[in-house]
Structure formats: C-alpha cells, structure tokens
Design goal:
Blueprint lengths: L1 H8 L6 E6 L1 E2 L11 E2 L1 H14 L1 E2 L2 H6 L8 E7 L3 H14 L3 E5 L11 H7 L8 E3 L2 E6 L3 E4 L6 H6 L3 H18 L12 H8 L4 E5 L12 H19 L5 E3 L7 H10 L3 E3 L14 E2 L2 E2 L6 H10 L3
Length: 310
Amino acid sequence: MAAGFDAVLQQPRTGFGTLIFHGIADASHLPVRSRFLKPEAFKSLLKRLKSSCNIIPLGRLFSGDIPPGRFSVALTFDDGYANNLVNALPILEDLDLPATFFLTGCALHQEDILWPDAVDLAPEVLKGPIMISDELWESRSRKGLVSTVTGESLKQRCKTADAPFIRTVVHRLAPIVRSGLDSEHHLWRQLNETEIRTLAASPFVEIGAHGLTHTNLQAMSISQAEEELRQSKQFLEQVIGRPVTTLAWPDGAYSRDLVERASRIGFRRQAAVEYRHKEDLVDPGIIDRLVVNPFVGAGVQELALRRGRY
C-alpha cells in the first residue's frame, strides 16, 4: 500500500510548481495559525520534496530552465517575518535549498507588524471595544474586531482599504499587540533593516518585494499603486545593495494594468497566488503559486503541489 500511495504522489512526474510559506514558528494557539508552519513540519516537508523533486530558484521557473525527469519546485516566502531568518534560513542552508523571500517595506516607516497580524492578534489582548478612525470596533469571537455601526469585520474592511486607513489601523493596534503579546513577538515581528541585510547575504536567498504595507494595490488609484511599487523596490534595493526585480502581489490582488505598470517599473518577474486574468496564462512574466496548508501532512502537501490545487 505504501509503495502504491507513493506512486500516486509522484504524479505528475514532470512539470513545476511554486509554494508559498509565510511564518515558520509554532502559532497553533493563536488565530494566526493558518499562516504558520512549525519548524519541524517545515523541515520534514522540505526533506520530502528534496528526495522526490528538483528544488530550484524561482528565476529558473520564469526563464524556463527546468531540469528534465522530475517535478520541479520553487520555494517562496511572503510577508517578511523575522522568524524566516531565525527558523527558516538555517533549515534551507542545512539542506542546500534556494528560496525567494518577498518582503514588505514596513521597516521604511519604522513599523514592525503588518496589518493582518495586528488585526488578528489584537482581540487576544483587548479588554473592550476600541475606537479606530472615528468608528467603534468590538471583538466577536470568530469574526475578530467588528464595526458596531456596519457589522463589517475590520479584517474585511482592511482588505479593500487604502494605505492611510491601513496605517491608522496599525498605529492603533500595534502598541496593543506589542505590550500584550511581547513574549510572542516571534509570531508577528517583521524583519528590520539589519536582519534584511543578513537574510540577503545568504547565497541561498533571493529578495523580492511585497509592497510597502501589504495593502491591496487595487484599492488605490493607479498612480498611488505605482508609487507604492516604486518605493518598495527602492527601499529594498537601498537596504540590500542590489537590484530587486521580482514582485509578489500583496493579498494576491492585481489587475492587468498593474502587471504592465509593475513591469515598466522594473519588476520583470511577478508572483500571484492564483491567476486572476486569462491573459496571465500566456504571460511568461507572471506565475501562480500554492499556499502551504499547515494542517496537512507532507505527503498530502506534495500531492496538492503536483496537482496545483488541494
């Protein structure tokens, strides 16, 4: 049975796929758990993939330089958690595996937490309703912070909000998370500039951009979105001292107009979560990716990667 099951998992034998990781740490006791994979599970998955697939740099997938004979995999990390440096990089280096890390530019504004983490974690330590942008929000179990006026969740509001609203949310909630969950800082803290340089110094690492504040760029005007893209690129290039030409769209949100404008800015390679437009299927400059599911085993994860879906 084991031999037969493994044979199934090896299909298709050729082709390629790209995985998205976020945090590498144990967050099983907090509402951010779906974005985190425990280090031991991360290492187990990589060892399995290394034994059955070719793990290659993302750039080789874009260029079509894919080794024959086995399924090929590129590893990517979104969001720029500090635990990527502490927990993920040593495992990658130990296994001699390349990866691309897509980082935000939040450090440019001396911020150390992204809005999804602030919104998800603040209810864990809030003692009552909180006023944000002249609107009262209260915690309601599974929905998190909810507007007492509209009933809309703050998380859903942020998904389509502009950058000023996102910064207001972070400035209001980040101090609450920092003080209430300081011992859990490894689950929310972003890489600072020194840590970004340390990460980028590894020969196994490529640095890519992921926007400034993880804001949905489609929620902005085209000119605002272009400026965010330029600033994120310039910030990372200034920090690491080399060109940044790869972009992962924050929240997987983009339009074909944005794809073309990002390319003109210098992002020759762009990563989606799932293709959103039929033109993407024939565009060699954009690639779709599969988000790692922390609630399944390595075998099921490999099968989903080969299939391109769960």
